[in-house]
Amino acid sequence: MDSTEEDLIRPIFKNGRYQNPFDTWEDTPGMGTFLKLMRSEDHSNIPSPRELDKTLPVETPDFQKLKNPPESDIQIMWIGHASVLVQMDGLTILADPIFSDRCSPVQFLGPKRYRPPPCKIKDLPHLDAIIISHNHYDHLDHGSVKSLNSKYDDKITWFVASGTKEWMINAGCKNVVELSWWEEAEFPGRPDFKFASVPCQHRCERTLWDSMKALWCSWIVKGPRHSFYFAGDTGYCSGFKQIGRKYGPIDFAAIPIGAYYPRWFMRPMHVDPEEAVKVYEDVKARHALGIHWGTFKMTREFYLEPPVKLGEELDKKKIDREKFFTLRHGQVHTIGQPIPS
């Protein structure tokens, strides 16, 4: 049964700043806890590029497939981290694009890629829409936004959460739609396509002074035949069950599985693989891709642990591993088809 409008969880906005309404949320700890985090054991063990080419290969995308997507199926490509390209029902959608070497305010300091993007922005196919989950540097990258604007100009529509439109306009974006949780908008010229901002549990800031002044969200895209859910970046919360009740079943979901250790610090903001499977179940996804891993060193779990733990959790729940899967960087995949090993 669908949730009524009165039942739907809304963000809290007080004194110019947003707050999470979930009882699973905890505010980010202070400097003392951050220093404790820096002293915690690091299990990431990221090897040399030569070894990474064997264990975490980057695939050259099949550009012919991207230029000629199937008419009746969903086609996707994992670019890396949370960046995923989705083609369905005649629309091509890019989520949280980052092509820069570092997810940082500057390109000489901050988390650096240990796996390169599989292609350049100039190589991407025609794009219709770009969805942004929130304003953290690993999800909203200024260099990538500028390059996308240079290539596509006003041919794309950007969908962002409340509080981010002004930043997008200042970065040169022409068509920007800003939505709060549960608000919906039609895609321009395609009334059969609906974009909806929906809840997740996270936070926003790009400087020391703008903490929580913009909202974070996940996204539902509903076309005439298919639907897509993009979780973005999130801790586990009660919002996912509401998403499933209102919009499920969902044909394809992109759900984060990495950047979760140590749990005492990361739990409010990032799901681990066990919680990612809960999200998959809550939103009633038929198929899902594990994202937000294997690209930047953000946290301290072993770099290949997220897909391993995802598989173990799926086995525990007797869910087919082909239903919630991972891909190689650059791999182009049609939903529902076997995934090459």
From TrEMBL:
What's the EC number here?
A: 3.1.4.54
Recorded GO terms, molecular function? N-acylphosphatidylethanolamine-specific phospholipase D activity; zinc ion binding
Where on this chain does an N-acyl-1,2-diacyl-sn-glycero-3-phosphoethanolamine bind? Y137, H270
So where does Zn(2+) 2 get bound? D138, H139, D233, H292
> Which GO terms of type biological process are on file?
N-acylethanolamine metabolic process; N-acylphosphatidylethanolamine metabolic process; phospholipid catabolic process
Q: Which UniProt keywords apply?
A: Lipid degradation, Lipid metabolism, Metal-binding, Phospholipid degradation, Phospholipid metabolism, Zinc
Q: Which residues form the Metallo-beta-lactamase domain?
A: 93-293
Query: Pfam families, alphabetically?
Result: Lactamase_B_2
List cellular component terms (GO).
cytoplasm
User: Which coenzymes or cofactors are required?
Assistant: Zn(2+)
> Which PANTHER family would you find in this protein's record?
N-ACYL-PHOSPHATIDYLETHANOLAMINE-HYDROLYZING PHOSPHOLIPASE D
Entry's family note? Belongs to the NAPE-PLD family.
> What is the recorded name of this protein?
N-acetylphosphatidylethanolamine-hydrolyzing phospholipase D
Naturally occurring in which organism (per UniProt): Magallana gigas (Pacific oyster)
